[in-house]
Fold:
Amino acid sequence: MHFKSVQYASPQGGIKLMVTGAVHGNEVCGTKAILRLMKQFESGELALIQGSVTFVPITNPLAYEKQQRMGDRNLNRNLYPRADPQDFEDRIANWLCPLLADHDVLLDLHSFHTGGVPFALVGPLDNAHRLEPFKFAREEEAMARALGVTRFVDGWLDTYAKGVKNRMQRQAKGDLSVDDISADIKYGVGTTEYMRENGGYAITLECGQHEDPHAPEVAYNAILNTLAHLGMIQGRTVTYMTGAEALSLCEVIDKDAPGDQFVKVWKSFDEVVKGEVVGHRESGEAVCAPFDGLIVFPNPNAKPGQEWFYMARRTHRFD
Structure:
């Protein structure tokens, strides 16, 4: 096992872009797209006119080798350097976090469990709050519009923090054991959140379902569009999306027991109405939609104590 990054740098200074694939080992569309771009840089078909781009084709080599989401744990949670690394993902973090901090912009390429169309996860609006202070919302939104997708989602870290608070309350009542709970609101920090904490901006692009043969093409075009948008390559025209669909994550519902089951195969962005039954607990209790909205990231394979699905509302952020 080793960690690998490849950087191409123009003699002219400029923005330092980083592109990551396979943060989750079974999400390989980004890996395929990155390797394709690297061949073009190596052959001279592509060249930078300014700045630098660092490619990390396989961010989590253990999970990639196992062809599964995680190695020892989810790399895209609690992503911080560790003085006393306890697992393989901690060791990745000790290599990856300084690399992220040395860049200005991150494009993180992912895919998702169930069917649906590609979408981008963006950060918060500019703010000075404790949880996720930020000052590059305008730059991030402009980059998001260049990616080639028409749906944008925000609210990740704030919603994750609400989920942690709910778990803590349930633990206090004896509904969850300590082993089942992630008690730190910063546990939701992954690659993009770490990038924002360290003075940059970042987007997670969900390129399609894991096995979708078109997902690597979505990732490939997004990388090229990002390079062109940032003025790093010539010869590519970017079409900026207008009137895109904007959603904000509002609530996360955890899986409690192995027998918790959905009532059907949900896809991300399936619409539900308040009170509609989404699934049943192992006990038989119905789990209902808390408001009119959309389901995001439904995960029938979630482990007890982990996120089962998210709920989102439409907003006007990208109008």
Observations:
- The chain has two domains: 6-242, 250-312.
- The longest strand covers residues 245-254.
